[in-house]
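User: Once you have settled down, look closely at the record that follows, taking as long as you need, and be ready to discuss the fold:
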Amino acid sequence: MELGEIGNPGAADHGKPLDGVRVLAAEQMQALPFATQLMARLGADVVKVELPGTGESGRGATPAMADPDGRAVGATFLRNNLNKRSLGIDLRSDAGRDLFLRLVPNFDVVADNFKAGTMARYGLGYPPIEATHPAAIVVSISGFGNTGDSPYQDWPAYSSIVEAMSGIYDYKRPADGPPVVNPMGAVADITAGLFAVIGVLAALRHREATGLGQYIDLAMFDTTVALVDLVVNFHSLGIEREPQPAPFVITPVRCADGYVVLQFVREAQFERLADLVGCPGWRTDPRFADRSGWGRHLADVILPAIEAWVDGRTRDQVARALAAENLVAGPALTSGEVVADPHLKQRNMVVAMPRTDGVPGPVLLPGNPIKMSRVAEGPETRVPWVGEHTGEVLTDELGLDTDQLAELRAAGVIS
């Protein structure tokens, strides 16, 4: 799907669910930018507040492309900032903080994802925002929360840190080695962003009933523990680490053109697999009398039989044959196969943004996975350049004239 195109065009006349909702976001990197991009895709008007000149830290990520002025635009920024406007304000200055607070009454949602306590030190915490705009919904994402008395409240955090603290790394750690860290990119960031959107939607609904805004305080440690729910739950059931041998099977199987991943967790699935690969005797084999036998004999019995059955078949052939027996499997796709996948193309899950640095081919970004029958997808707009909409926003929202904008630029307050 190209920027500017519309998916599900028949729904365009219905508008979008967050049309009219306005978001002022002092944001950086991924957790909050992911949340606000999702809200923008659902119709919200998102104004992104960035440091003049350099912009937010996600712009410095690698790999990167160059913007029209030759400045680097990092991959983290590219993935999380479609459909937004960029407002360059230096919140470290008194004049910048004053501008921000003056903007607040014009927005429904005010959000940040700085280290806990940062907005309070700027004089932009919840109390002054509530005093200025009681109906404002204020959402903060930080490693360990802005409220309460966490022993980690002063710690900075990245996704991998709260993932480690959630217990999932140790739960999955090999018995003879260190944990595998950061196995899937910024999972904890995206999780926090999703919970932020849920919180905002709930607060908007609550405001309809009460007329009041509120403060939503999200700790990434909390949201990650909620994501990896089995750690807490299994501990209470006497399981500290993933059992070995595991009472289930999740395994790659080599095919003629790569790997398929196969998973079975129930006896009926194991029995259907046994029949499919020509080993019906597994049904009564005492080695498989309970589920732990699957893991115990995966390498010496089960995998050799599966591999013999698979021999010469492609991933697609194997996955389809397994699916026909209601067995759960799928090919391990390469990145090139993912971006060309017909399912993802049909569902507009790869968005192409033209590059601005002369390099052939577009930048590809994930689309919106929320498919709604009466909500059109797109048209999407490219990520903003640093401070690209500063004059527009400050003129429209605060009525600043050309001379006032020039004075603020000269002072380094805005870009």
Notes: The chain has 18 helices and 13 strands. The mean pLDDT is 96.
